[in-house]
Design brief:
Shape: elongated
Structural class: mainly alpha
Oligomer: single chain
Distance between the termini: 34 Å
Largest sheet: none
Number of helices: 6
Strand content: under 5%
Length: about 210
């Protein structure tokens, strides 16, 4: 019985790794669509979101099966319940990647985009997501705490972008386009918040306390 249980836990870990990679790709693809004004790439991001949603359902089913059939105790129980919470945040990350891709048709060029900072945010966030997932797999408390600490970098980049774009709204007549860029930055900043949530659930799984 224990062998079967361990096998199911390994399957859970593998599925979470796969879903983590899917959302990393979603963010990368949405940025490629944005930088290249590629509507076909943007449409693919939305299509791939269905696979992310399906993966969430599969992991949820596996977690519920583990909870009902194995009745895990203490740390194992926290690991499984944390996985359930994590996949909700991961699914929302996929949604925000779609939100960014959807704006591709509304932003005609990169003139007011602060694209370096937006790209820097997305790069940093992909690393945070990867490390958050790995901290769960490796049961690494320090790695999870480091993900949370990196959120300050994302917030600083976001406020730099926000300040610059608000100033440009005052100076130009293209306020609507600039607001689209600000919305893109906000979606990416929200992805960073979800990455922090992932790390917080890892800490809960390991310690029983929320960060």
């Amino acid at each position: 019985m224990r062998e079967k249980y361990e096998e199911e836990l390994r399957k859970l870990n593998t599925s979470i790794i796969s879903m983590g990679k899917m959302i990393e790709i979603a963010i990368e693809s949405s940025m490629i669509a944005l930088m290249g004004r590629d509507k076909d790439a943007a449409a693919q991001v939305a299509k791939n979101d269905e696979a992310i949603n399906e993966m969430e359902r599969e992991i949820e089913s596996l977690c519920l099966k583990l909870l009902l059939q194995q009745q895990p105790m203490a740390r194992d129980l926290r690991l499984i319940t944390s996985a359930l919470k994590m996949i909700t945040d991961m699914e929302r990350i996929g949604d925000h990647a779609v939100d960014v891709a959807d704006l591709v048709s509304h932003v005609p060029d990169c003139k007011y985009g602060k694209m370096y900072e937006i790209t820097e945010m997305s790069t940093q966030i992909i690393k945070m997501l990867h490390d958050a997932v790995q901290s769960y797999i490796e049961k690494d408390f320090d790695k999870a705490k480091n993900v949370i600490a990196q959120d300050d970098i994302i917030d600083e980049l976001y406020y730099t972008i926000k300040k610059d774009l608000v100033q440009k709204i005052r100076e130009t007549s293209e306020g609507e386009t600039i607001l689209d860029y600000l919305l893109i930055a906000k979606y990416i900043e929200r992805i960073g918040d979800h990455a922090v949530h992932l790390a917080e659930w890892v800490i809960y799984a390991l310690t029983g306390e929320r960060a």
